[in-house]
Specification:
The protein is mostly helical and 462 residues long. The protein has 13 helices and 6 strands.
């Protein structure tokens, strides 16, 4: 039986072609990522735009009756209007009959955002290449729609790719992050923390997160308020529907079309809660301190606007809801701070973060949800973004500051009480150790026994 042994020593150098094969193998993966990104963006574009076009065509046929009279329908007109409305939902102004409309129907924007999210969740790959390809394709799609629609003019054409990249990138990013192969949200948060500028204090970033929490709670409270308005104004809305007599097809289109402006009404309700209120037409004002109404478009949803009954001494306390959202944000921030390391500068930074984030986000949202909705009186719609944002920042910051400062003062008081208790305990222990030493008597000799000895029995010894 023979055995073979390998010679010891360095192995001979060989040229391994594996690295070259690995580089070549990456190219199909990159191409796959690009292809999936392009397909994802095309799906999102077609889905969101098709919904708007379908509603516009249905409304056109119901209004003109072209399908029943035998006239040749002009399909280009409703498609162009639908494309313009789709771009308006992205924030691109629409020009019709010489009037520029800047009011953004946020429902259409939400539809496009959801289409991007759903498409990325279904078809994209969790890679930067796939996300970039999808975002670039969506940007080019919005640019092409703006050029072909004929409803976008001037500088607004340059705005289309910017808002397309912003909305598409956000939706695709959210969809990619929920895929199974994507990193966990905790890992994404840690990477974001590492990428944060060193000049931005950590407590300021924590305060900004608290401000987003307060904003989300405030929008939720505004949604509940709008539901209450709708219930209170259901009779007015029913009268508007009866006067319009839209029919079954027009009724479906009208109901779905109102969903496009429902998010805007919710944001207007945020302005109502904050105090300044909002306008639906020049010279109108709906606020907790009074209502100045005027002629409104025949839209059933507008029947839910608050009437004079909603301006009373009770509703004047509505800004307390905004302050309560700030209180929750303050609790959110304080529970994530280390009480042993909190300084007064940290308190100031955290309150600034809460107030700043809430005010900026609400101001930007009010700016998007307002503007010009048509000619004449409809040139002024929505809440004042600067005033509303400033008041929300003050009210939310006040609520958060009350919690954080109060907790810091309570912590300082408890620390003083604890320090005093410990000092008192040390003093008592020292006194207890000294007193026994002073009270101990000096050592003395035992005294002699003075008791006489008992007599002895028997004769004395001699």
């Amino acid at each position: 039986m023979s055995t073979t042994t390998r010679p010891r020593g360095p192995a001979p150098r060989t040229t391994d072609p594996a690295p070259r094969r690995g580089l070549l193998a990456r190219k199909p993966l990159v191409l796959t990522d690009v292809a999936t990104g392009v397909v994802t963006a095309v799906q999102a574009l077609v889905l969101s735009l098709a919904v708007v076009v379908l509603l516009a065509v249905t409304a056109y046929l119901a209004a003109t009756g072209a399908s029943t009279t035998g006239d040749e329908p002009q399909w280009g007109r409703p498609v162009a209007v639908a494309t313009g409305l789709w771009l308006l939902g992205h924030g691109v102004p629409l020009t019709a009959s010489g009037v520029s409309i800047t009011f953004v129907p946020l429902g259409i924007g939400a539809l496009a955002l959801f289409a991007c999210y759903a498409s990325a969740k279904r078809s994209a790959r969790a890679t930067w290449v796939s996300w970039t390809a999808a975002t670039v394709t969506y940007t080019l799609g919005t640019m092409a729609a703006a050029l072909l629609a004929g409803t976008v003019h001037g500088w607004a054409v340059l705005l289309a790719p910017l808002v397309g990249a912003l909305l598409g990138g956000t939706g695709f990013g959210a969809g990619v992050l929920v895929r199974p192969e994507a990193p966990r949200m905790s890992e994404v948060g840690e990477r974001a923390e590492r990428l944060a500028p060193a000049l931005v204090p950590a407590v300021l970033r924590l305060g900004a997160r608290g401000g987003l929490v307060a904003t989300a709670l405030l929008v939720g409270a505004a949604g509940i308020l709008v539901a209450a308005w709708a219930v209170a104004g259901r009779a007015t809305s029913s009268d508007i529907v009866t006067a319009l007599a839209p029919g079954w097809a027009g009724g479906v289109v009208l109901a779905i079309a109102q969903l496009a402006v429902l998010p805007d009404l919710v944001l207007w309700a945020v302005g109502w809660l904050a105090g300044p209120g909002f306008a639906v037409g020049t010279g109108t004002r709906f606020s907790v301190f009074g209502v100045e109404s005027g002629p409104l478009p025949a839209l059933p949803l507008l029947g839910a606007l608050p009437g004079p009954d909603w301006a009373n001494p009770v509703t004047a306390w509505a800004p307390v809801v905004v302050v309560a959202c700030g209180v929750v944000a303050g609790l959110f921030v304080w529970r994530r701070l280390d009480p042993d390391l909190v300084r007064w500068s940290d308190v100031a930074w955290s309150i600034c973060g809460v107030a700043g984030a809430a005010g900026v986000v609400v101001g930007v949202l009010q700016w998007i949800a307002g503007g010009s909705a048509g000619p004449g009186r409809l040139a002024d719609v929505g809440a004042d973004p600067l005033l509303t944002g400033a008041l929300v920042a003050a009210e939310v910051g006040g609520g958060a500051g009350a919690v954080i400062i109060g907790s810091r003062l309570d912590l300082a008081a408890r620390r003083r009480d604890l320090a005093g208790w410990l000092a008192d305990r040390r003093d008592r222990r020292a006194v207890a150790e000294v007193e026994p030493a002073e009270a101990e008597p000096a050592a003395t000799l035992p005294e002699p026994d003075a008791t006489p000895a008992p007599p002895q029995d028997g004769p004395p010894s001699t």
